[in-house]
Amino acid sequence: MLDETPDLDNPDFMLLRLGRRLRKRQGVLDEWWRYYRGRPPMPQLPKNAQAAFEEFQRKARTNFCGIIANASVHRLFALGVTGPDGAPDDRASSWWQLNRLDSRQKLVWRCAMAQSTGYMLVGPHPTRVEDNSRPSPLITAEHPSECVVEYDPETGEPVVGLKAWHSDLDGYGHARVFYDDRSFPYRTRERTGGRLPWGPDSWQYAGDSDEGEPHDLGRLPLVEFARMPDLGEDPEPEFACVMDGQDRLNLGVLNRMAASRYSGFRQKWIKGHKFAKKRDPETGLVTVEQPFVPGPDNIWVSEGEQAQFGQLEATDLRPFLEEHASDVRDMLIISQTPAYYYAGDLINISADTIAALDLLHVAKVREHIAAFGEGLEDVMGLAAAQAGVLDDYTEATVRWADPQYLSPAVQADAATKLASIGYPLDVIAERLGETPLQVRRIAGGAAAQKLLAASLLPANPAPTAGNVDDEGVTGG
């Protein structure tokens, strides 16, 4: 049985504490994921109409939460890591490429935008080694349903982390509690069906030593990337502020679909006509014969003396469409997403208009960049510690692509003007969004071209009797 004594240094207690936090937030993570995937709760109608509208309920869901989340993910792209002086770091670039962070970073940003947090875990690579024979760093993207971090209430620094998962291979639940100098492995006592239990009798320690498994990284190897949490509040996904708007929009679509199907066309009516009836000899059910069948070659005739025909006006669907457009615009405005994601009446808009519409969205993305950049610096510091490199990567700089869209013509014009006032080529290349390695290649290529051009210039003529004056100075 595990020891439940409350103590941050007690891995048994932290396993159960953080595991229960994982279980508690699993429900809300699932809810956020359903909204992100476009599968929020189906809009509801009165109870007596539920059966008739079940199909409509499924079809009435329109996914704008996914668009809002991905609008920020598309603008978040870390190009790499440079040293404090801005020069590319070859070792950091090597770890970056070997761990495929150009693509894996998007997995973390998408988790953070869709489910409030994402994680990266740093550890020893099982096969690759560094030049000093230490295992190379392995950096993996982790899901918030499997990872959680405990922070020191006084310093705000992470002190304990947990990764817990169900293995499809052996059927058991596995977990590992991380500290800044060691980790503790656990396994469930019995096979689980995918949902991990968090009772004190459910887990057993799976390590060889009660002291855990030491590591020399010097800090918690699990790094959390939280999406812009408010002070004292838990982080929320990018679309948390418009979830009610998404539900309202889906209900509006449901109402429009119902009106379109049942009253979107002109209904016919007749009075003063005597309909024939017939009885089913087996069931005794009485039905009314319907002689009036719509068709371009049909004529409706009634022998009734007072028979009258007419039709009802169709329901005007324009108010529904206007309400839909208004709800969408509200969602985009509240979430600070550019309006051109829902084009509407935006036709032939200029680059200046796009920049104006981007203003709040770019400001929001820059906040994400500031927060996530700190986390990436921690990740690279852990990678350096794993590789046995003593350099301090807390002073490193994470280079990000500019979240503001600029046309190639505007970028070229800006680069030309910067060059005319003396900006170095490598700095201009950074502003254009080139990666650190590409910046080095551009600067090296430009230097080589200048050297080649200088070597092809004609040499200065040697002094001769004809071009030397009396004082021995060449003249011309």
> How does the helix and strand content classify structurally?
alpha+beta
Proportion of helical residues: 25-40%
Query: Main sheet?
Result: 6 strands, antiparallel
- Poorly predicted regions are none
Cα radius of gyration in angstroms = 34 Å
List the helices and strands in order: HHHEHHEEEEEEEEEHEEEEHHEHHH
Mean pLDDT: 83
Principal-axes shape call: flat
Description of the molecule:
The protein is an alpha+beta fold and 476 residues long. The protein has eleven helices and 15 strands. Strands 4, 5, 6, 7, 8 and 9 form a six-stranded antiparallel sheet that branches. Strand 5 (158-166) and strand 6 form a beta hairpin. Helix 6 (243-263) packs antiparallel against helix 7 (318-334).
List keywords for this structure.
38% helix; 6-stranded antiparallel sheet; alpha+beta; 11 helices; 476 residues
What's this entry about, in short?
The protein has 476 residues and is an alpha+beta fold. Helix content is 38%, strand content 17%. Helix 6 packs antiparallel against helix 7 and helix 10 runs antiparallel to helix 11.
Write the layout of secondary structure elements.
Elements lengths: L10 H26 L17 H6 L5 H9 L4 E5 L7 H9 L2 H15 L1 E13 L5 E8 L4 E5 L6 E9 L6 E6 L3 E7 L14 E3 L7 E2 L7 E5 L16 H21 L4 E4 L5 E3 L6 E3 L19 E4 L6 H17 L16 H37 L9 E4 L7 H13 L4 H7 L4 H20 L21
Helix pairs in contact: 3-5, 6-7, 10-11
